[in-house]
Amino acid sequence: MKSELLFMKQEDVIAAGVLDMKKILELVEKVFYLQGHGQIINPPKTVFGIPIGEEPQSHFFSMPVYIGGDINRPGTKWAAESRANAKIGNLPMGIDMVILSDPVTVQPVAIMDGMVITAMRTAAAAGVAAKYLAPKDAQVAGCVGAGVIGRTMIMALREVAPSLKQIKLCDLNLEKAQNLANEFKDEIEVIPTNSVEEAVTGADIVATMTTSKKPFVKSDWIKKGSMIIQMSSCEVEGGVVEKTEKIVVDSWDQMKENDLSIINQMVQQGKIAEADIWSLSDIVCGNKPGRENNDEITMFSSRGMGAHDIIIGDYLYKEAVKKGLGQKLTLWDEALWV
Ligand SMILES: NC(=O)c1ccc[n+]([C@@H]2O[C@H](COP(=O)([O-])OP(=O)(O)OC[C@H]3O[C@@H](n4cnc5c(N)ncnc54)[C@H](O)[C@@H]3O)[C@@H](O)[C@H]2O)c1
């Protein structure tokens, strides 16, 4: 029996609706809900780096997942990040593929570009966290990093924090911040800067999404009652974490495998207790409270969950089938040795 699957290039993924941030937020929140109800199998990702010279120049991540409930979809994301691409700038820093399988026959049903899915779901996880943990009347966001996630973070924050009036956006490359300011000029005021202090000081929501391997956000710049979102591992210094009343993560199982994570390092050093790190799924499911007052400082940090990619991939695949998008590929006409 012939085995066919749908191949979706990036343009098909976009035509199927991946840029609809409202929908992506809904799907990502559903994963946190299902995770809290034991319906997600999402083992820690496997990662390796390929060294060229002293340090790894590229990293590869394998992220297998099963989503239960009414989704019932196994799949995996094969993700990769390249320092060379980040330096040269003619290819994306992160390049990802999403593969979906049939839960019963285990045949692959779809393979699609996962780059835009990754960008959207990463910011959406932060957006879901902000829905529960950001100050209710947030006016100003201080964002650091005007790359791929910098763009989707603005999309997510605008959706979940409609009270936002201004975004101060810092990047080492000021031109990238200026370009994003221009891109969003009809939607929200974005003020480009190359000073992290200027971007972060006094902000109601601070969000970092850079490729920096060293902390650069100082605790003195964090105001009472704000929310901090850290998308990479160690962009905020330890003092920021110590100042935080609620430390919330997407998946502690994933984060504790990451030696670069500032939260993980502080747990290892005994500066914070593992029990004080909450899972966002507990808040989404109502087992733990979100923001409780105007004064507390909250923090969300993520390592990234394949389950977010797979639930979005599943949705986009179904939309593609409805809209006639993508290209059918044949895995075999008649399988050998059946
Ligand atoms: N947690 C997750 O699920 C997840 C998923 C995807 C990416 N990420 C992480 O998010 C980060 C951003 O990814 P991206 O795809 O947007 O990368 P990108 O290369 O598109 O953008 C990164 C930006 O950060 C800027 N930058 C680097 N160091 C800086 C500093 N010290 N101060 C100010 N700006 C600085 C760069 O100039 C660049 O514009 C990466 O660390 C990536 O690993 C996390």
UniProtKB/TrEMBL annotation:
One of its GO terms (cellular component) is cytoplasm. Coiled coil: none annotated. Gene3D superfamilies: NAD(P)-binding Rossmann-like Domain, ornithine cyclodeaminase, domain 1. InterPro entries: NAD(P)-bd_dom_sf (IPR036291), ODC_Mu_crystall (IPR003462), ODC_N (IPR023401). It comes from the Bacteria. Signal peptide: none annotated. PANTHER family: KETIMINE REDUCTASE MU-CRYSTALLIN (PTHR13812). This is Ornithine cyclodeaminase. It comes from Tepidanaerobacter syntrophicus.
